[in-house]
Amino acid sequence: MTAINQILVTYLVNALWQIPTIAVIGLLSALLLRRFPSVYLHRLWVAALLASVLVPFMSLRAPILTPDAVDAISSKQSVARSHLPPPIAAPSMSAFSWSILGRRYQITLAPRLLAILTAVYFCLLFYRVFRLLGGITRPRGSCAARR
To answer: In terms of residue numbers, what domain contains 138?
Structure first.
């Protein structure tokens, strides 16, 4: 599995619990704002939408270097081997870990499941982008009826 797949699946695993949490917080906030003007509700849901995309991204970390990458970097920099720290072992590409409130969790997914999750994610992403573009370019019926 490539590093891009690992990053994508890490994003999806984090999004599985972070996005519903943001949606519940948004819903509770909307209940508190129900007597306010609708512009505040709109701003709240736009902020929730942005947070649901950005929060899983903030939980991503840089990939850990493999021993081969450490050797390549050290040869390019012409640094003596004795000054290099011992290389960090690369984790399994299908094992994903995260921490919540200081506790560390890890999940291992089969490569076939990772491929299915990635394909479903991209299919849903392309579907929503095409729907958005279709909604932008399609004239609204209520505007056409006013003319």
So the answer is: 3-62+94-146
**Residue with tokens 């890490």, as numbered in its chain:** 10
pLDDT, tens only, 69-123: 556 555 655 544 555 555 554 444 566 666 677 777 777 777 787 778 778 888 8
Domain-located, residue 74: no
pTM of the full predicted structure?
0.47
Strand 95-100 relative to strand 103-108, pairing: antiparallel
Tell whether 70 is covered by a domain. no
**What's the residue count for the chain?**
147
| 16 domain residue, yes or no | yes
SS3 label, residue 23: helix
